[in-house]
Amino acid sequence: MVLVDTHTHLYLPHFSDDIEQVIENASRNHVKKMLLPNIDDESYSKMMDLHRRFPGQCLPMTGLHPTSVDADYLDKLSWLELKFHTENFIAIGETGLDAHWDTAFMKEQEDSFIIHLEWAKKYDLPVVIHSRKTMDKIIDILGARKGAGLRGVFHAFSGSAEQAARIVDLGFKLGIGGVVTYKNTGLVQVVKSLALEYLVLETDSPYLTPFPRRGQRNESANLLLIAEKIAVIKNIPVVDVARATTRNASGLFNLNLE
């Protein structure tokens, strides 16, 4: 059985003391690839350092997180785009819109997101989307560009069945993480209603730790708990969840899983 963690921030300080053990834990729990979304220009070097330490397992993206968008966002984006000349990235991200923490730069967030979409087309890469309290707005932005060859994943999806249907109609996947294991989450019904071909798995480590490990630091090894929960929801073997979601991730991010 092979699993792919499509969204994990293993380069953050939360893992600085035991990253080798974290990678070993992941491998022991069938997680063979861990995809690293970038946050901003300051996180970039830490992410790339981790990729170089574990080049076959930890794979980098590049992008500017919406909560890192400020008055200097164009300079940050210009600096990040230069990295395409020297590095191979598996995706653009994470990008998107966030109306939860601070709405002072929403116009700039939208401009930044559109620039990321242009990168996705220019470099023929999938885009990894953060959509906190902004999902309908992002769906509308993508809908206006339908047919432009855009593809990717809505990271940490926790929306409605209607939103999920609109997203898959646009050709995007849904990133399912620890929230699906939480009591009374509406995500269970959404997952039950969707075919596995639309799903990829993620942890968003060190955040969104799945049950029964809530309250602890999340790590990529916990992806197995998420796969097991989806197997229960769909009443199928966990190996079938692994096979389908890994196939989806491999196709979307062009992964070599041999």
Percent range of helical residues? 40-55%
Whole-number radius of gyration?
17 Å
Class per helix and strand makeup: alpha/beta
User: How many domains make up the 3D coordinates?
Assistant: 1
Number of helices: 9
How many β-strands, per DSSP?
8
CATH architecture annotation name: Alpha-Beta Barrel
At the fold tier of CATH, the topology name is TIM Barrel
* Mean pLDDT value: 97
CATH superfamily: Metal-dependent hydrolases
Essential attributes:
alpha/beta, TIM Barrel, 258 residues, single chain, 3-stranded parallel sheet, 9 helices, 5-stranded parallel sheet
Describe this structure in words.
With 258 residues, the protein is of the alpha/beta class. The chain has one domain (3-253): Metal-dependent hydrolases (TIM Barrel, Alpha-Beta Barrel), CATH 3.20.20. It is 40% helix and 14% strand. It is built from 9 helices and 8 strands. It has helices spanning 19-28, 41-53, 73-82, 106-123, 135-143, 161-169, 187-193, 223-234, 238-253, and strands spanning 3-5, 31-36, 58-60, 92-98, 127-132, 152-154, 172-176, 199-201. The strands form 2 sheets. A 5-stranded parallel β-sheet has the order 4-5-6-7-8, with helices on both faces. α6 links the parallel β6 and β7. The chain is globular. It starts with a strand and ends in a 5-residue tail after the last helix. The mean pLDDT is 97.
